Amino acid sequence: MAVRRKRVKKHPDRQQIQLKETLIFLVKLLALAVPMHLVMLLSIGMTPLQEAASSELSWALRGLGYTVERDGFMFSVSGGRTEPFVFYIVEDCTAWKTMLFLAALIVAVPAVAWKRRVVGIALGLPALWLLNLARNVSVVLIERSWGYETAMAMHDWLWKLGMILAVLLLWLVWWRWVRHSERAAKRARPHFKQRKEQ
């Protein structure tokens, strides 16, 4: 007589669930990096963003009392030193990569309502845009006060690291808000059920 063994359904433990969610997050993040690489590979221009960044930078520098001559994305800033500071606003000066990466981080998180993702993106992108404007203004201010080498060191090292940290910080703040609001919603559900039963 053959004895049939009962199949026992194994429920994944918490660690397996976390590993699966991490894998899903990383796969989504890699997939969402494709648009950035396509833009760079196909040399798609960021002219509208360059125009916006140039206009705002020009407005901010004039507001600080500098003489600004602008020809498209080429700037000549006078004031503070004898020779003007001449520079060009390239596509990377618009923070488009950091904004895209923040959006990708937010979208890649599994099991989050789209409403919460939209809130994160809608608040995070303008924050990065303003931080980038501050970055561009500070590079000019540093050049006018301490010279070209110091300004480029700030631009090439400190601000690049600062923008990366800003993206991670904004993402972590958003993620904490999502977790807090989900916990609050779970705590409110039993209370809502009890009221409904009464």
Number of strands: 3
What is the arithmetic mean of pLDDT? 87
| Rg calc | 25 Å
| Computed structural class | mainly alpha
The proportion of residues forming helix, as a percent range, comes to over 70%
Ranges where pLDDT stays below 50 over 5 or more residues in a row are none
**How are the strands of the largest sheet arranged?**
1-2-3
What is the succession of H and E elements? HHHEEEHHH
Number of helices: 6
Major sheet description: 3 strands, antiparallel
Global shape: elongated
**How big a fraction of the residues is strand?**
5-15%
Q: First CA to last CA: what distance? A: 57 Å
Number of domains: 1
Question: What does it look like?
Answer:
The protein is mainly alpha-helical and 198 residues long. The protein has one domain (16-184). Helix content is 71%, strand content 7%. The protein has six helices and three strands. The protein has a three-stranded antiparallel beta sheet, covered by helices on one side. Helix 3 crosses helix 5 and helix 5 runs antiparallel to helix 6 (148-197). The N and C termini lie far apart (57 Å). 19% of the residues are buried. The mean pLDDT is 87.
